[in-house]
Amino acid sequence: MRNIYLQILLALLFFGPMRAQENTSRVSLSLEGVSITEALERIEDATDQNIYFDKDWNPNTKVTGNYYNELLTDVLGDILKGTNLNHFIWEGSVYITRNNLIVDGLPEDFFNDGPKGDIARAETLTTTSKPIFIGSQSVGNNTENIETVRVGRQREGTGNTAVLSGKAVLASTGQPARDMAVLVEGMELGVSTDSTGYYELRLPKGEHLITTRALGIAPTTKRVLLFGDGNMDLELQESVEALEEVVVAANQNRNVEQAVTGLTQLDVQKIKTLPLVMGERDLLNAAVTLPGIAKAGEGAAGYNVRGGRTDQNLILLDNAVIYNPVHFFGIFSALNPYTTGNVDIYKGNIPVEYGGRLSSVFDIQTKDGNSEEFSGEASIGPVTNSVMLEIPVVKEKSSLVLGGRLTYSDWILGILDEESLSNSSANFYDVVAKYNHSINENNEIRATAYYSKDNFSITSDSIFRYSNRAFSLRWDHKFSKNNTGSILVTNSEYRFGIEFDGDSNDDFDLGYQNYESEVRLKMRSLIGDNHTLDYGVSGKYYIVDPGDKDPLNPESDIASISLPREQGLETGIFIADQWEITDRFLLDAGLRYSYYLALGPAEQRIYQEGQPRTEDNLIEVREFGDQETIETYGGPEVRVGGRYLFTPDFSIKASYNSTFQYIHTLSNNTTVSPTDTWKLSDINIEPQQAQQYSLGLFKNFNEKEIELSVEGFYKQSENLLDYKIGSQLLLNEQIETDVLQGDGKAYGVEFLLKKNDGALNGWLGYTYSRSFVKLDSQFEEEVVNNGEFFPSNFDKPHDFSLVANYRFTKRISASMNFVYQTGRPVTYPVGSYTLNNEDFVFYSDRNRFRIPDFYRLDLGFNLEGNHKKEKAIHTFWSFQIYNVLGRNNPYSVFFITEEGEIKALQSSIFAIPVPTLTFNMKF
Amino acid sequence: MGKLVKYIFFLTFLAQYSCVEEIEPQSIVEFEDILVVDATITDETKRQRVLLSRTFPLEGEMNSPETGANVVLSDGNGNETVFEESEPGTYLSPIEFAAEPGNSYRLRIETSDGGSYLSAEKQLPPKSNIDSLYANRIDNDLGENGMAILVDTSDPNNNSTYYRYEYEETYRIFAPEYRNTDLIISEDGSLQLGPRNPNEFECFPTNFSTSTILNDTRDQVEDQVDGFLVRFISSDNFILSYRYSILVKQFVHSRETYQFYESQNEFASSESVFSNTQPGFLSSNIASTTGDGEKVLGIFDVASVDEQRIFFNYIDFYPGENVPPYVVPCIGKTIRSGLRDLVESNLVKFLEVNSGQFTSGAFIVVPRVCGDCTALGSPDQPDFWIE
Question: Could you tell me the pTM of the whole model?
Answer without folding.
Answer: 0.70
